[in-house]
Amino acid sequence: MNAMHPLTGELYRPDLESRAGPDDHDDLRLWLRLLTCCNLIEGDIRSRLRIDFETTLPRFDLMAQLLRVPEGMKMSELSRHMMVTNGNITGITDQLEKEGLVERLKVASDRRSSIIRLTPKGKRAFKKMADAHEHWIQGLFSGLSDKSRKALFDALGELKLLAQTRLAARD
Length: 171
Prior knowledge:
With 171 residues, the chain is of the alpha+beta class. Helices cover 63% and strands 12% of the residues. It contains 6 helices and 5 strands. Strands 3-5-4 form a 3-stranded antiparallel beta sheet. The two termini are 40 Å apart.
């Protein structure tokens, strides 16, 4: 849904950050800005994958995981790495297998398990997508100066470490 910006009068699309008001805490406003940036970037990547490659981000992510482990991975390993259910992995794998992009290999010691790995066709297809993905990301960040990019990277690294430490203390 689009709206008129209250100050400029121009058409804009409200986002999560627009929910915050000037009286809200800076931490809340920062959180909403982070979410907005992530949603904007992820939405763009999803759209480009769909338009340019007729694929989805979960399929891209699964193929990326498999590229890192050429010998292949079990479904349970894939679901753990991608933080989704085995059912999600099975559905994506079924589609990719029908297209000849991945193959299932039975595990000799456990007939119920299969190793999933990219086929040569899958490796070629993923390489094209990964090259385009890298170009898209570079394009999205190209407006940032090297100094701003490094400062943002460092600040987010600090936030990540702080969040991990606090969450671990709660467990």
